[in-house]
Design brief:
Length: about 180
Amino acid sequence: MTSLKGIPMKKSALAAGAAAVALVSVTACGSSASSPKAPAPAPSAPASSAAAAPVKPALNSPDQKKIAANWVEFFNPKAPQAKRLALLQHASSFGTALAAMSKNPQSATSTAKVDAVTVTGSTAKVTYDILVSGTPALTSQAGEAVKEGGTWKVSVKSFCALLAMQGGGKSKLPAACKPAS
């Protein structure tokens, strides 16, 4: 099976994971993680005109718009580190990690695009894509935003889930990404 770019899916998934890791190459995080979805396989035939594409929820509310903007800014490789830290839950654990991330050449071309946000109180489900040089590398990823100190932030859970894609399994994650025992 091949991806949209003609690269075998296993290699494509590894490349996408590497791109995600380029965004989040960190040495510490602080919550349990769930694994993001693997990239969707390429469609084998064009959709028929009779089948309508699923409608994505609009980002209409002020909270939805702010969450989407903050999520995109957090994954913006050109954003100052202080701004990125301000948009990450429990940021005090991540200064060194974000500094290391900014030195990774792949992170210079990796960004995020938010597809949907569903707000429930002080948390929100975020559906997003990771783009590398503007091309989707990971699509329809499930993430979480949390409201901390009045600001919508990328959750540590989401951040650590991306780290889990780095390889080596959960045993290779920083201690702060592992549940307390």
